[in-house]
Write a structure and sequence with these properties.
The structure holds 3 protein chains of 3 kinds. In chain A, about 30% of the residues lie in helices and about 25% in strands. Chain A is an alpha+beta fold. Chain A has 2 domains: about 240 residues, Zn peptidases (Aminopeptidase), CATH 3.40.630; about 90 residues, Peptidase M42, domain 2 (Elongation Factor Tu (Ef-tu), domain 3). In chain A, strand 6 and strand 7 form a beta hairpin. Chain B is α+β, with helices and mostly antiparallel strands. Chain B has 2 domains: about 230 residues, Aminopeptidase, CATH 3.40.630; about 80 residues, Peptidase M42, domain 2 (Elongation Factor Tu (Ef-tu), domain 3), CATH 2.40.30. In chain B, about 25% of the residues lie in helices and about 30% in strands. In chain B, helix 1 crosses helix 3 and helix 3 crosses helix 7. Chain C is globular and about 70 Å long. The two termini of chain C are about 15 Å apart. Classes of the chains: A alpha+beta, B alpha+beta, C alpha+beta. The interface between B and C is medium-sized, with 33 and 27 residues.
Chain lengths: ~350, ~325, ~375
């Protein structure tokens, strides 16, 4: 049995909504503990795992992957029904009929339901019902619901992981637990490898709401540069190029204002030289990942974004290809192995300054 | 306390022009704090208490600014066009009276085009200061003002403009007056420019560099006819914020606040606000990150010139803060 | 504020050499996200002029030129190097390329324009279906960007990669008393800073920031101000002038600025409320020196000052802009006199700055 796949399944069987990451963080902590030299928690709940290099305290790479997920939270209980709102970008069209678990005074199974037309305002009698008008029924009598559930309780999806032939897996929160698996595998691979740079593996919090976890972690760690690992769209029904990518062709590299062009080129060449399949994506304005704010931490941080293709993003049946995850970790391991003390001088100098030296 | 609230809400202080409010607050607090300063963005930062062995540095933030108007153009006939400062809603401009920082008053009028139900958009509204023509008009481009409406005492409840967030300022002032010495270093920050994007809190959080941040602001309610579903209501106690449109409170801070409220047996409510946010959002992502929470005073008709709040909620909020701050803070 | 005009004050001149520089700057491609072509030109101009400079991790040029004497105030002048434009997102067959807009361009401005593509400035066009082939109904709706292509000619298939940036091809022209060009926003600010550096008042240290990604949300200025830690921040930009007549002859009350009435001094925009002490100083200097200026109408929008003033413990900031019509289109039009007066106002005001300016409360 694939130990990493088991770890991934474990990760997508717990909740860990933005701001409430402790269930997922505990699982990652347990896994990372033996793989890192120190493991700390930031003030906003991000997990920082340091794997020291041969020259500790000099150069450092921050590999940032968010661990939080989107989901639902209780806004109140009335007449035995639970009112909800979303944390992060939940499409209300995905919700009706969804089986969920409410983490109230005890864990309770429930279902998201649409009130019938005559219970809704005139303009909502057909069409999309907004999340705030949907209800959750946990089957208990009203007075018991009030005892068991209250404002601020959070939900998790009840969807269990399913494996498909060809090394595919589906489940909730694969955005971005798939990337956590990639980084974890890299940490394992690094156990047997000498590397010069310090490696900070960061499982960041609150990406889906404020991007504040990675921003503050970047401010604290002050890495030499950072690589954000996140998911991107895989091609599927209604989703095509250029915004979506193929399964089984490796991670995609984001090109755009959020990524440092020198770093991008280096990593792209590295992937090619080592025969690691990869795809190229362009993001004209911003990357939609932690890179967006991480780039602006402190005096600015060079950032690269590596994305794993994922189908049906932000639904409870997200789908990824395990091989794409493993290729991502192979790439990260290779990158860390290749980082030398003079990497910044050798590969990251601006051309405009270089040309001056030549004269 | 009621008098303090009335004095505060009646001051004119739209975002960026908070000096009347600041001067008033300095007068109120200067004998009750160890030191205070006004920073580059106009924030009033007051310090009280020293950090004991088990203490931490806590930043409390209430914003001094209110929504308002700024003149963009005065036409030949002396009518002043304006742009809004913060979330001014057209429908609340109907019959609106404006007081400029220079004392000039005016009323908001509308070009034809509205209906009996709705006001036209802001560019079709103007402020009439009674001037005969452009030369006589006593306001010019760039002059700022705020809505004017007298304070109304309804017994338990009261009505006024700018309860958002002078009520937070009142809580903070009262707190500085009565808070006993404790283990914590308290930075009471009366912030600026909250209504235009939490700007004062952004810079003051950076300079204070707190271990814990709490904002004190108003929140919406769900207890008015056909209101959108929300559990918070007037008079049911201060609201402990779980989440709003911009941030999620640290769950440990929420539990800490709840436990304190239960200990002193005051009523409290748990708040999830659909839209809008407070200074806590910018404190949260300051520097290396700050655990934050927010205590809200439930308020009806927010951002109208007639906001309504409940006096007992205010008193209970103060009690809650005293209980929270006088002891070492333990978050788990 | 009481200001007394300095007897020996001499304004930097804006003549042919400065216009030539602006021309070079404006004609060059430098869309948000890859500002290297402009960076080259600027570095060439300033490297012997400043005490030190560097390029930070985002690509901002941060340069310092110190003044002389004691009690100097450190003033950050920021102008953004980037411009709005396009990014090629997908190569189709035979020289056609899908693209998206970078920054805020009204898509009604796209059709039928020549463009330049990539840092080597390949020529291309954005065309449209012939009017003969369109229906009356089609002609009523704007053509969506997703239906348009950048065309490099049928022989140029797969010549450029997705991710390549492009912009309008308009060459700078002098038209009567005005200048017309594609990227006056904000190459005119860049040229202004260079003029100030060449004629720096000795009482100030100038921290010159040529910033990136302004059009994507004032991003470069954020890290620039954080690392420079100036006493004062001044964003020098180009601001929309919407002073055209209304269809019914009624008074245009939403002009923002008017061409020919001097530099626009910002009291308030969507991102910044000007520091009142700086607003007072700039307008007082304008009055005393009899330099025409106008207040930019309070409204939305924002400049690099919006990022600068929120850094660290707060940095008193203001924006000064050259009014420009038709910003974010293929051709922005500015009055030469407005630019001259902008340089004069900024230079004269700098010469009156000292540390006492910030000792009194902001109010």
């Amino acid at each position: 049995m694939d130990d990493m796949k088991t770890f991934l399944k474990e990760m997508i069987s717990v909740s860990g909504l933005s701001g409430y990451e402790s269930p997922i963080r505990k699982i990652i902590e347990k896994k990372w503990q033996p793989l890192t030299d120190s493991l700390t928690k930031s003030k906003l709940g991000s997990l920082h795992g340091l794997k020291q290099g041969i020259n500790p305290g000099k150069n450092s790479i921050m590999i940032s992957t968010h661990m939080d997920a989107i989901g639902l939270i209780v806004t109140g209980v009335k007449d035995g029904f639970i009112h909800v709102t979303s944390i992060g970008g939940v499409d209300p069209r995905v919700l009706p009929g969804q089986l969920v678990k409410v983490h109230g005074r005890e864990d309770l199974d429930g279902v998201v339901v649409m009130p019938p037309a005559h219970c809704l305002p005139e303009d909502l009698k057909s069409g999309v019902i907004p999340t705030e008008r949907l209800l959750v029924d946990i089957g208990y009598k009203p007075k018991d619901v009030e005892k068991l559930v209250r404002t601020g309780d959070i939900f998790s999806y009840n969807t269990e992981p399913i494996e498909f032939e060809g090394n595919y897996i589906t489940g909730h929160s694969l955005d971005n637990r798939a990337s956590i698996m990639a980084v974890t595998q890299t940490l394992e691979q690094l156990q047997k490898i000498n590397h010069s740079w310090d490696v900070y593996a960061v499982a960041s919090s609150q990406e889906e709401v404020t991007l504040g976890g990675a921003l503050t972690s970047g401010t604290q760690i002050k890495p030499t540069f950072a690589v954000v690992v996140d998911v991107t769209f895989a091609k599927g029904p209604g989703t095509g190029a250029p915004k979506a990518f193929d399964f089984d062709k490796g991670p995609s590299f984001d090109w755009g204002p959020n990524t440092h062009h020198k770093l991008y080129n280096f990593i792209k060449d590295l992937a090619s030289e080592n025969d690691i399949p990869h795809q190229l994506g362009v993001y004209p304005r911003y990357s939609g990942t932690d890179a967006n704010l991480l780039q602006l931490a402190g005096e600015g941080i060079p950032v690269m974004v590596i994305s794993i293709p994922l189908r049906y993003m932000h639904t409870p049946v997200e789908m990824v290809q395990i091989k794409d995850i493993k290729r991502t970790s192979r790439l990260l391991t290779q990158l860390i192995t290749d980082l030398e003390d003079n990497f910044m001088e050798e590969h990251m100098q601006w051309d405009e300054l270089k040309s001056e030296d030549k004269e | 306390m009621k008098e303090l609230i009335q004095n505060l809400v009646e001051l004119t202080g739209p975002s960026g022009f908070e000096h009347n409010v600041r001067d008033f607050i300095i007068d109120e607090i200067k004998d009750h704090v160890d030191e205070y300063k006004v920073d580059n963005l106009g924030n009033l930062i007051a310090k009280k208490g020293k950090k004991g062995p088990k203490g931490i540095r806590i930043m409390l933030a209430a914003h001094m600014d209110e929504i308002g108007v700024i003149v963009t153009h005065v036409d030949e006939n002396g009518f002043a066009r304006f742009h809004t400062i913060g979330g001014v809603m057209e429908r609340n401009c109907a019959g609106g009276r404006v007081r400029f920082m220079n004392g000039v008053g005016g009323v908001i009028g509308a070009e034809p085009g509205g209906t009996r139900q709705a006001m036209p958009n802001i560019p079709k509204l103007y402020i009439d200061t009674g001037a005969k023509n452009k030369a006589e008009c006593k306001v010019k481009v760039g002059d700022v003002g705020a809505f004017e409406r007298t304070f109304m005492d309804l017994g338990d409840k009261f009505v006024s403009k700018a309860i958002d967030d002078r009520i937070g300022c009142a809580v903070l002032i009262e707190l500085l007056k009565i808070l006993p010495d404790g283990p914590n270093e308290i930075y009471a920050v009366f912030t600026t420019q909250e209504e235009v994007g939490l700007r004062g809190a952004t810079t003051s959080a950076y300079s204070v560099d707190p271990d814990l941040g709490i904002s004190i602001d108003v929140t919406l309610v769900g207890d008015t006819p056909k209101a959108n579903f929300m559990e918070v209501g007037l008079g049911k106690g201060p609201a402990i914020k779980i989440k709003d449109g911009g941030m999620i409170s640290d769950p440990r801070v929420v539990s800490w606040m709840e436990a304190a409220a239960k200990r002193i047996r005051i009523p409290y409510q748990l708040e999830i606000l659909a839209g809008g946010t407070t200074d806590a959002k910018s404190i949260q992502i300051s520097r290396e990150g700050v655990p934050v929470g927010c205590v809200s005073i439930p308020c009806r008709y927010v951002h109208s010139p007639s906001e309504m709040a409940d006096y007992t909620d205010v008193k209970n909020a103060i009690k809650l803060f005293v209980e929270l701050l006088k002891k070492p803070v333990k978050l788990n | 504020m009481k200001i007394t005009k300095k007897e020996n004050w001499k304004s930097p001149s804006i003549g042919n050499p400065q216009i030539k520089l602006l021309e070079k700057l404006s004609n060059t491609i430098s869309v948000s996200g890859d500002e290297r072509e402009i960076r080259k030109i600027i570095i060439e101009r300033i490297e012997d002029l400043v005490d030190e400079y560097k390029i930070d991790h985002l690509g901002n040029i941060l340069a310092i030129k110190k003044g002389k004497g004691r009690n100097r105030i450190r003033v950050m002048l920021a102008a953004h190097m980037d411009e709005v434009g396009f990014m090629v997102t997908h190569a189709e067959k035979k020289g056609l390329y899908k693209f998206e807009i970078v920054g805020g361009i009204d898509e009604r401005n796209l059709v039928g324009k020549p463009v330049i593509v990539g840092n080597d400035q390949k020529s291309g066009v954005i065309g449209a279906k012939a009017i003969h082939l369109t229906t009356a109904q089609e002609r009523k709706s704007p053509i969506k960007t997703s239906a348009l292509r950048i065309d490099l000619g049928p022989a140029n298939g797969e010549k450029i990669k997705p991710g390549t940036l492009a912009t309008f091809a308009t060459k700078l022209k002098r038209v009567g008393p005005s200048i017309l060009g594609k990227a006056i926003d904000d190459r005119i600010g860049v040229a202004t800073i260079i003029s100030i550096l060449e004629n720096q008042p000795e009482n100030v240290d100038i921290l010159a920031a040529f910033t990136v990604q302004e059009e994507l949300g004032l991003r470069g200025a954020r890290v620039a101000a954080y690392s420079m830690e100036p006493d004062i921040g001044i964003a020098l930009d180009s601001t929309p002038s919407m002073d055209m007549p209304t269809f019914d002859g009624s008074e245009n009350t939403l002009y923002r600025t008017k061409l020919g009435q001097g530099p626009a001094v910002y009291p308030f925009d969507g991102a910044t409320i000007a520091d009142p002490r700086l607003l007072d100083l700039f307008t007082s200097v304008g009055d005393e020196y009899k330099i025409p200026y106008q207040l930019r109408q309070p409204a939305g929008g924002g400049t690099d000052a919006g990022s600068i003033h929120k850094q660290r413990g707060g940095i008193p900031s203001i924006s000064i802009s050259v009014p420009g019509r038709y910003a974010h289109s293929s051709a922005t039009l500015v009055r030469l006199d407005d630019w001259k007066n902008t340089v004069r106002l900024v230079h004269a005001t700098l010469s009156h700055m000292n540390k006492n300016l910030l000792t009194k409360d902001r109010r």
